[in-house]
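User: I'm putting together a teaching handout on how multi-component assemblies are represented. Below are the sequence lines for each component of a complex, exactly as they appear in our records. Could you produce the 3D structure of the whole assembly as structure tokens, so the students can see both representations side by side? Please keep the chain order the same as the input.
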Amino acid sequence: MKKILFTLTLILILLSAGCISTTPDEAEVSPINENETETLEYDGVDLTPIDEQRNNAIKGTQYLYPDDYRLEITGMVNETTVLTYDDILSYPSVSKAVPLDCVEGWGFAAKWTGVKMETLLDDAGLQEGATTVIFYSEDGYSTALELDYLLDKNIIVAYKINDVTLPHDRGFPLQLVAEGKYGYKWAKWIVKIEVTNEDYQGYWESRGYNNNADVGGPRFG
Ligand SMILES: Nc1nc2c(c(=O)[nH]1)N[C@H]1C(S)=C(S)[C@@H](COP(=O)(O)O)O[C@H]1N2
Ligand SMILES: [Mo]
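Assistant: Of course. Below is the structure of the complete assembly, with chains in the same order as your input.
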């Protein structure tokens, strides 16, 4: 009898170990934010815990690291600017509770902390006539938004979610908080920002999704 119990316990342990090793993404979270505590309420808004938030990406999680990360800001700016992770953290930070709504019908609410696009663009020096800002990501993803929208709505690129540094699978180091816009405008793993005066169709937009992407508005065309 004891032998059977022992064997059963052993099987259980082996099974649960198997479960743990099949979720590498969670293990990858810890090096960046092991000493941080997640907040679940902000500004009167109940937030969705990070491990209950969904995410999807065209090529899965991208792994960028603070030491060799660079953000390029280029195009219709006075000077192409290359920022380090520490440069980005040194700007004044802004926090807000904003829901993310994927065009496929799921969503979640989170507290986002980061730097205003206006701050980054002003620093690089916006040129006359610019209308559009394109965001390029490490996985080859891209999307674009109107410059006026980014400035008027105080849109931020976030480096924290629910007070925790963005985990790798959530877009470390930066995710665009495109409030009011469908999830496909919320670029993750941003490596380059380009200012232009031309229309641009991003990854999903060039595959039929609406380029305006207002939540509640048309999803296609
Ligand atoms: N780089 C990159 N950013 C991306 C995507 C992607 O595939 N690659 N998917 C977009 C889509 S369709 C959605 S719904 C949101 C999901 O964001 P989340 O991971 O914060 O839930 O990320 C957006 N940003
Ligand atoms: Mo999405």
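A couple of points students might notice: Residues 102-104, 183-184 surround molybdenum atom (ligand 2) (CB under 6 Å). The chain has one domain: 2-31+38-207.
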